[in-house]
């Protein structure tokens, strides 16, 4: 039977119409959302360049020295102040010949979340390829702590936090299929294969306390250690997992954020800073609401294109401060034009009133005085 020309004409015209719409409205389609009650202050932060890319996480030792940061080529660097600058502290792998400053080489490792054990001085490292590593107070070559839990390989250790009273730590394994290098494929795939793990350092045993998560990314303990906060980078949802007290073993939604969350850090007063890789836009809402769309993008788009679309064509900086009790957003700080900050991955507030920020890609960290936004 011949196809009716009245049916054929609109079908044939659909791609043309779509192309015209995209041509005229493309900037609106990928433009990041505008947020209410935001403070545009991140662009005034001081920039400290690095001899390496991607200081994804920051940490300070028990003497207050640092920050220590992990970079793309598998090293941990330590900041020694303006005069001495950055010095090598540790590295993930003895195989250093092919390590690249700008591109991740799996054999070199990729250090992500950092946490000091204040009792021992050991620095624990979430490596996006090897698992959980640690290095002693003198630095050097890191050693493996855990790379398998409940019979499954730790593919993508992301961020952790240590409960020193209990001698346990908690960490995210973001995917059972992809390593760090494919992080944005994890985000758009829709696969719920991430998990949160409790590891007993005395017994050397790991236990999954929450699973079926869509790219669990940041993680932090509450100030009293009664619950763990973890965020799904693929949904913008933060979960509260109770690990002590009468609610132990239960979980609930703690907050929803207007973008793709990365690392979480507890403030000195018990609230939480959450870094957003980017704000939501129509593109991110599209693939987050329909996993089949995300999977089709994985087959047709390069990683660089996915990152470009998710950032609205304009990498920017945004962090949120959430109440440690209710999850309410207390502060929204931005560099919406990306003038100073891009791809912000973590915000770490110190008791001296300084806010340090890292980036998953950029070769710098930033420092901002909290008086800029808190009115003190």
TrEMBL record:
Record-stated family: Belongs to the strictosidine synthase family.
Q: Which GO terms describe its cellular component?
A: endomembrane system; vacuole
Give the Strictosidine synthase conserved region domain ranges.
158-246
Protein name stated in the entry: Strictosidine synthase conserved region domain-containing protein
Q: Which organism is it from?
A: Eutrema salsugineum
Sorted keywords for this record are: Glycoprotein, Membrane, Signal, Transmembrane, Transmembrane helix, Vacuole
One Pfam family named in its UniProt record: SSL_N
> So where does this one cross the membrane?
7-26
By its UniProt entry, which Gene3D superfamilies does this protein fall under?
TolB, C-terminal domain
Q: Does the keyword Nucleotide-binding apply?
A: no
Give this protein's Gene Ontology molecular function annotations: hydrolase activity
The record's subcellular locations are: Vacuole
